[in-house]
Amino acid sequence: MAECNVETKKEGISSLTAVILTIVVAMSIIAAVLTPMSEEFMPGIEAIVDTLLNITTNMIYLIGGGVIIFGAVLVTIRFVQCKLKDPYKPTCVTRFLSGYLTLSLEFFIGAEIIRTVVTRTYEEFSLLILVIFSRGLFSLILYLERRWHGSVETE
């Protein structure tokens, strides 16, 4: 397996990071100014925010599911190609699949964190904490599996 030799730039702040930080600060200031007067001028703002957060959460879930499907298709194609060339040679596809699964779990954990904003009861919150903990544990297991297999895998 060839290693990726990409040089990273360590000096200063990148322009993308500066833009993102500027947007976050501007949105925070706007939210702080509009929050006290939101009920006077926009009486249904809480329902709109809840709806937008639910839509965002569902979109992030779909992206995570898409990553799993995309990774499974690519790994299956790679496995078949490797086995058609040499049926007795290890294919290392488990390592690649675990990478896609880890990425999708990160999307799912992000969606669960956003969903904590919408929860209203203690039971929902405790269930979300358990889901986040279990998905984080699965992500850690997949990460350790990828490190353990290294660049050579026997199947």
Keywords:
155 residues, mainly alpha
Give a short overview.
This protein has a domain at 47-149. It is built from four helices and no strands.
Question: What does this protein look like?
Answer:
- Helices cover 79% and strands 0% of the residues.
- With 155 residues, the protein is mainly alpha-helical.
- The chain has a domain at 47-149.
- Helix 3 (93-118) packs antiparallel against helix 4 (122-149).
- The longest helix is centred in the middle third of the chain and has 41 residues, at 45-85.
Secondary structure layout plus pairing:
Blueprint: H1 15-41, H2 45-85, H3 93-118, H4 122-149
**How large is the count of helical segments?**
4
Largest sheet: none
Please identify the structural class as seen in this structure: mainly alpha
Radius of gyration: 22 Å
Strand content: under 5%
- Which overall shape is indicated by the principal axes computed on the Cα atoms? elongated
In percent, how helical is the residue content? over 70%
